[in-house]
């Protein structure tokens, strides 16, 4: 099965490279470092290396506390941080700008044997740490052949992903069984990972609870909030394709019924969709400003005629949370599985989420049970619930306090993960 998988990868390589070029129209990072995706890298000093693979921006942010703990625990080692997306690499560059040469970034090559062999020969990592959901059959097989331990940390697996993996059992099961250690985010994740074929996965929690909100983002959030005056602010964060249309239609229908003039902030999950969402705003006749048009530090007052701020920036999610009164976390109005609520809780904001949260089911249910979050069944319900909360200041404050308490209570996953990794360091 792995031979067939490798053959399919080889045949699809020209299409994968074309896709990189095509995505590079909107995200130039995809047209950079193309050689790395084929296993060709600049010279690398012969230094003991711990390799951390974080596919995109979310996984990279989740890995931050672990990487900093590894740097402190292993001062003689260099960290190799690999990605698959341009946004992941950009996020890593910003997060670890202070680290210097002890951390090197690269793109992971495609999962084709000869490329993986070149990668492993070039960097000679002593340990591979995969973040969240990555199981690459050839990568894991080549690491096993070269006696490089492979660990999967902050691991999560939804029912949908489990069913998909089980349909490819003859390919995925050998890779899963070759993983040396697994640290799952939750008990349900651990059970599903065990069902996939991983022996004795541990449960260490979600490392995103250990990420410290950058003070600069709090300051920028305060500056952004001052520019809004006394207006109440609803944030729709990490929205996905299909959600913005629902949100904007409901916003247009609801706002004329209100006595207040709330401001809506929309931050699409993927930067290549910023212009698309701007077109949607224009098609609805909504008056809006783009974040990219505003001063980064001291923002001039924004007129009450502006209805929406389009968050067309990367790496400023904490700023948007700091600037809002209520936060809706996207990917949950449509069946995409949702996103985690941790950043909103870390900023002490009342959280709203839709019904499709299967990627983060346990953490979402826990947040709702603790009083930190509320589930809505659609875009109209989103605004109705938001307006109800904003009209009740004490309830809003209670939910915000519960959210921050929920955030604090779930910290410590990084320390538990480091204990699991200790035998490999």
Automatic annotation (TrEMBL):
Its EC number is 2.4.99.12. It is found in: Cell envelope; Cell membrane. Keywords: Cell inner membrane, Cell membrane, Lipopolysaccharide biosynthesis, Membrane, Transferase. Signal peptide: none annotated. It comes from the Bacteria. It catalyses: lipid IVA (E. coli) + CMP-3-deoxy-beta-D-manno-octulosonate = alpha-Kdo-(2->6)-lipid IVA (E. coli) + CMP + H(+). It is an enzyme of class 2 (transferase). One of its GO terms (cellular component) is cell envelope. The keyword Transcription does not apply. GO terms for biological process: lipid A biosynthetic process; lipopolysaccharide core region biosynthetic process. Its main location: other. The record marks 132, 208 as: Transition state stabilizer. One of its GO terms (molecular function) is Kdo transferase activity. Residues 302-404 form the Glycosyl transferase family domain. Gene3D superfamilies: 3-Deoxy-D-manno-octulosonic-acid transferase, N-terminal domain, Glycogen Phosphorylase B. The active site is at 59 (proton acceptor). SUPFAM superfamilies: UDP-Glycosyltransferase/glycogen phosphorylase. Pfam families: Glycos_transf_1 (PF00534), Glycos_transf_N (PF04413). Residues 33-211 form the 3-deoxy-D-manno-octulosonic-acid transferase N-terminal domain. Pathway: Bacterial outer membrane biogenesis; LPS core biosynthesis. Involved in lipopolysaccharide (LPS) biosynthesis. Catalyzes the transfer of 3-deoxy-D-manno-octulosonate (Kdo) residue(s) from CMP-Kdo to lipid IV(A), the tetraacyldisaccharide-1,4'-bisphosphate precursor of lipid A. NCBIfam families: PRK05749.1-2. Belongs to the glycosyltransferase group 1 family. This is 3-deoxy-D-manno-octulosonic acid transferase. It comes from Undibacterium pigrum.
